Fold each of these.
Amino acid sequence: MRRKIVAGNWKMNKTLDEAVALVSEVVNMVKDEVTGDVQVVLCPPFVYLTTIRQYLQGQSRVALGAQNCHEKASGAYTGDIAAPMLQSIGVQYVILGHSERRQYAGETNAQLAEKVNIALAHGLTPIFCCGESLEQRQAEIHFDFVRTQLTESLFHLSPEQFADIVIAYEPIWAIGTGLTASSEQAQEMHALLREHIAGKYGAEVADNTSLLYGGSANEKNAAELFACPDVDGGLIGGASLKSREFTNVVKARQ
Ligand code: PEP
């Protein structure tokens, strides 16, 4: 079902005390101020997941997500984290294919297809990230590039499996740069993604897919972005590190 979702990607930020303070504040603010049916997802660093989970008990409005998982279920992969481990500690979502992992860890569309499979097999909802670089946009190959990311990492799934996928369109040139896609640019790409999904899975599946926007979204621009008919929510980086600002983004989506 198409859901309104606002996910906070904390990336590699916060000490334990800071992480606990942030989750406590967000949970309280969401409880007191958010009345709509938006699903909030917090994606802290791996080491804080079990601690953060304790603060989310009984809070169906705020779910727990990880920032990545390995494509194998277990094995000799020093320093990595597997999907069954995340499942075993109560994680519900996992960000896959973030542009920072594509850039710094060399993640490929084929590898991401495997990560999507293992995440789904272990009850995790993938938040699958896609998005083009500035050069690709300037060369006007951004639509093809993003379509290919979906085709190569997601279109092997059955319609039933695809129903569990959340997609985040994150233009690389807008991530952490303060440059936000205009609402027209966001809507244009989201509509194209929905059309691409419809071409593979049919209009009903496409209409039920949650498409999030990410890239310097904040309390000032969120309402305009979320007003776009094909933007169902946001994946929020920098603005998710401050409880007041993040909650304001959530409220813009409720
Ligand atoms: C992100 O990294 O997913 C992101 C959207 O970051 P920011 O909001 O800081 O641009």
Amino acid sequence: MITHPFTYEAPATIDDAVKALGRSRETKILAGGHSLIPLMKLGLAEPEVLVDIGRITALRDIRSEDGAIVVGALATHRSIADDSKIAATLRALAEAAASVGDLQVRSRGTIGGSLAHADPAADEPAPTLAFDATIRVIGPKGRRDIPAREYFKGTFETALAPNEIVVEIRFPAPAGRSGSAYAKFAHPASGFAIVGVAAVVGLKADGTVERAAIGVTGAAAGPFRATAAERALVGTRADASAVDAAAAKAADGVTMLSDLTASSEFRKQLVTVHARRAVERAVERARG
Ligand code: FAD
């Protein structure tokens, strides 16, 4: 039950939503409600004004534009998992979205909500980092494009200002011979990622790795790029020993979380194993 009183607004445009956000310091955007409503029921979020952006239908679109796939903030996990453009070019994102919770959660929860909430165990931040996506936000001062690597700041922390709205996420379509994959070790009850790894690999004509990007979620206070593993992979032929050696570096320099679900040692091992699986599948797909 939600016990505190609040005002509900449902603007039809982004401009009106931005104005509504400015009316009180205790305002919250409502998207799919699958993170915010549970927090309100627990009394952990008590907004004075709830700004429901569900009527801004343009924010649900998934489109191709200037060599990028642009995913509206209100695209649900389910619509992302089912989109043919995303399946063809951003497979790791499709797989991450398909792995979120259950059908009900996937049908209501949105990518914008997931990235704004920034739960350290959320799935979509991993491919967002690995594809070097840009998060487009609009606030009272206008529009800002935030590169994914500057966006995630830690547990429930992002570069988003309180009165800014995530409007879309722009994923550059990987060029040339490339492949991607998402490998996850899911919490058995909630489905959240205890560890999730998204890998994006680009190959040269001779089969050596030209580009490698690995985004990791669930393992640490926030999602991160496994840069030591990426460096270890580039220039190799991505054979089993090269992939193993790179995956072994995927947790390098990062403090692993330790909680009732998994110790830091176990999480480190999960990162290694899932980095190997994600890279292997990405390479296989790049080879075609
Ligand atoms: P909301 O709950 O509406 O909002 C969440 C927060 O983001 C709020 O603070 C809100 O103000 C803010 N916000 C929302 N949209 C915007 C926007 N466009 N701009 C700025 N701020 C915004 N997630 C996973 O990743 N993996 C899982 O396996 C998983 N399992 C789940 C299982 C259950 C049972 C439940 C209830 C949730 C689970 N989730 C999981 C979380 C789910 O994916 C949420 O839908 C998602 O994290 C938040 O999206 P939402 O649209 O529901 O956002």
